[in-house]
Amino acid sequence: MPLKRRQFLLFGSLSAFGLSFLWKILQRQEAYSAQINPVLTPTVAAEKPLLRFVSIADTGTGAQGQYAVAEAMTRYHRQNPYDLVILAGDNIYNNGEIEKIGAVFEQPYQSLLKRGVKFHACLGNHDIRTDNGDPQVRYSDFNMQGRYYTFRRDLVQFFALDTNPNADWKEELVWLEKELSDSDAPWKVVFSHYPIYSSGLYGTNQNFIKIFTPLFQKYKVQLYINGHEHNYERTRSINGTTYLICGGGAGVRQVGRSEWTEHSASVLSFAAFDVYADRMVVSGIGTDGRVFDRGVIGLRSV
Predict the structure, then answer these.
(1) Where are the domains of the chain?
(2) Alpha helices for the chain (secondary structure H)
(3) How far apart are CA 36 and CA 216, in angstroms?
(4) Cβ atoms within 10 Å, residue 264
(5) From residue 7, how far is each of 71, 129, 258 by CA, in Å?
(6) pLDDT tens across 121-159, in order?
(7) What is the rounded CA–CA span in Å between residue 279 and residue 47?
(8) d(CA 258, CA 203)
């Protein structure tokens, strides 16, 4: 630990016994600082994540904003390789027309697709305006196994939901609880289009709080990802679950703050996640490549 001038002068005036005692105190202070600021404290050697993935939402415009975010994702991939993208709805504006898929998906993300990056999508409110979103469900590069589905990567199990008003809520909720109950994955990540906690235009969904949060708490879901709000917002852990809005994938709207907000920003961006055995590091990244938010999600004991 490098000595500051004040510490050096103080050490010079102490006996050997006093020097040893003060050195132990300073070591304890540094260890405590590392515990409360795990992201800001450098480690001796970089630890490789077990899985890295990114998430975006509200992307499908084919306009300049979407391409800017896509380019930032490609630059990030060069330095921090990943092979999974969570696409949290409103994949094709304005009406989910599958004939636009080249302009709003295949072209913007062509560099990532050529490198074998897989996108896993869910349906947003704009997506269901054409044939109830069925063409997107069938589109192979969205890797959807239905309107709601689950898949596992390493230590993480993902659960994609259809939270549109016309969803088959009765069957879907039965399915979700069964899949959460059966899962032995240490990390559980749920994603859909609609927010549960939000400080943006649409605000917090009280009905979803009643429906989903008891399940998330019971089955130890650590992360919920969504779009719909065209902004970035990360909550603190609420009963063990962090809620992450990544809807700045093509355009932005203003966002405020709530008592449970850790960070919010009205910025074109995507979110990146580094998963370790005991923690998940979340980064909000803008089109300039700057990390404007970083937080840590802890793994709760099962």
Answers:
(1) 5-35, 51-298
(2) 5-12, 16-36, 64-79, 101, 110-114, 134-138, 169-182, 206-218
(3) 25
(4) 23
(5) 47, 66, 41
(6) 999 999 999 999 999 999 999 999 999 999 999 999 999
(7) 12
(8) 10
Please name which of 298, 143, 283, 272 lies closest in space to residue 220, comparing C-alpha atoms.
Answer: 298
Mean pLDDT score, 18-40:
42
* pLDDT average, residue stretch 11-35: 43
Q: Which of 236, 233, 237, 190 is nearest to 211 (CA)?
A: 190
Band of residue 45 on the pLDDT scale cut at 50, 70, 90: low
The sign one gets for the Cα dihedral 256, 273, 63, 127 is negative
Tokens of 276: 């370790």
Q: Looking at the structure, give the CATH architecture of the domain made up of residues 51-298.
A: 4-Layer Sandwich (3.60)
> At CA 111, angle to CA 271 and CA 86, rounded to 5?
30
What's 129's DSSP letter? G
Query: Order of strands across the sheet with 156-160?
Result: 149-153, 156-160, 187-191, 223-226, 242-246, 232-235, 261-265
Q: Quick one: the chain helix, strand, coil %, rounded to 5?
A: 35, 25, 45
Query: CA-based Rg of the chain, rounded to a whole angstrom?
Result: 22
